[in-house]
Amino acid sequence: MSNRTLELTNELYEYILSVSVHEDEHLQRLREETASHPYAMMQIAPEQGQFMAFLVRLIGAKRIIEVGVFTGYSSYALASALPPNGELIACDVSDEWTSIARRYWKEGGLENKIKLRLAPALETLDQLLKDGQQGVFDFVFIDADKENYDNYYEKSLELIRVGGIIAVDNVLWGGKIVDPEVTDTATEAIRRFNKKLYEDERIHLSLVPIADGLTLAHKR
Ligand code: CA
User: How far apart are the CA of 146 and the centre of ligand 1, in A?
Assistant: First the structure.
């Protein structure tokens, strides 16, 4: 028994996957195909995808924004949890990576729910704000360049409704977050971001130690 989060051994992790994670055949193949990609570590963990899809269902989300698509595992998982009239705006700058995503969205019958915006995500978020989309989104997943986390967060907070959720990936950054010798710009940006959210009274906060650390901000 333990009253703190367990250290995950390989055995425990495999066990969690074996008794909890459900992926459809497309999602499973997408994960396998991405595993051989040079940037495979940018793919989210399957239990994390399922957890976020759970949250999407829990809050009855209809409109989602994803900042950072990569090869599309998270957008596939999130869009699968949306109702038929739901919409996910997927922001990324890489045509190459998202071409893999688009292939799987189509295979899974999700291409009508997912609107890909190939542009810097800050531009897409600014455009949504210009179009008067404040408060109309239910869920945002931020998983892109860490230096811009705070900018993505501030714009997302305007775009989601009260009771909406912003989920932010990699907030434990492979453990580097607590290594004082690591002071690169990305690590420092995540440190500042974590500290800021801890003091942010506009949200309820939970930092979930799943995968590489997932912060949940629930808008008050
Ligand atoms: Ca990530």
Answer: 10
Average pLDDT of 21-44?
94
The pair of structure tokens assigned to 69 is 């698509």
> C-alpha distances in angstroms, 91 versus 114, 130, 140, 179?
10, 17, 11, 31
Q: What is the pLDDT of residues 84-117, one digit of tens each?
A: 999 999 999 999 999 999 999 999 999 999 999 9
Give residue 169 CA to ligand 1 midpoint distance, Å.
Answer: 5
Ligand 1 centre distance from Cα of residue 170 (Å): 5
- 3 in a domain, yes or no? no
User: Taking 90 as the threshold, does the pLDDT of residue 1 lie above it?
Assistant: no
Structure-token pair, residue 109: 């019958």
Q: Which two tokens stand for residue 196?
A: 């800021």
Share of the chain above pLDDT 70, in %: 100
pTM of the model: 0.97
- Contact present, 212 and 174 (Cβ < 8 Å): yes
Q: What percent of the residues of the chain are helix, what percent strand, and what percent coil, each to the nearest 5?
A: 45, 20, 35
Kindly state the DSSP code that residue 4 receives in the 8-state scheme: S
What domain range is 15 assigned to? 10-219
Q: What's 14's domain CATH number? A: 3.40.50.150
